[in-house]
Amino acid sequence: MSKESNEMSRKGYQCRWVLAGILAVFGGFSSAHADDLVNPDDLNELYRHYFKKYETKDAALNEKYRALQTILSADEFSQLKSVQRAWVKFKEDLCDHHPYFGDDFAVSELDPSAKSVIYLCLAEVTEARLLELAYITSQETELAYTLYASKNKTLQASPADQNALWQAYADKNCQFLSTYLKENRIDCMERQRFYYSALQL
Which terminal Cβ of the chain has fewer Cβ within 10 Å, N or C? Predict the structure, then answer.
């Protein structure tokens, strides 16, 4: 095995654990009900599963986004676009492989285990945003959060607060909702923190 291959393998192992740690801090997502069907020892199968999962969530997100364009006024949709751009920055930074591999490798060149973790990250962060867009449409929250909110009335601290890009996204999102739905900031921020710190999908 070449020196380059050894380095890539070492970084792939490092990336798997570092990104898994990031997900544990900011996501806490398990998706166990679906992922139990995947053989965790087959890394190619695992990668294909998470890649397909991300594609499905991303397509659903784009569909929901387009539907909101028909509901919102031009000014409201302009505000939503600003929120969405902030969210994309957060997503791409959180799930970015470059800090662990450098700029020499594209995602397609990584080993299946590294690609699995990257696409899992993308899928779960997209799932959380999809839930938030659904809330904009119907003001309904995911059941786990509904149960959580009924027992917690004070703003809970979250490790996500230490992420500047997450904070920028959450601030913009809550500012938009304060105008569009007249939602107070405390309720909005609490839901954001829950989706990225405690939600089990």
Answer: N
What are the CA-CA distances from residue 169 to residues 24, 55, 84, 188 (Å)?
Answer: 20, 22, 8, 12
pLDDT in tens, 71-85: 999 999 999 999 999
pLDDT of residue 54: 94
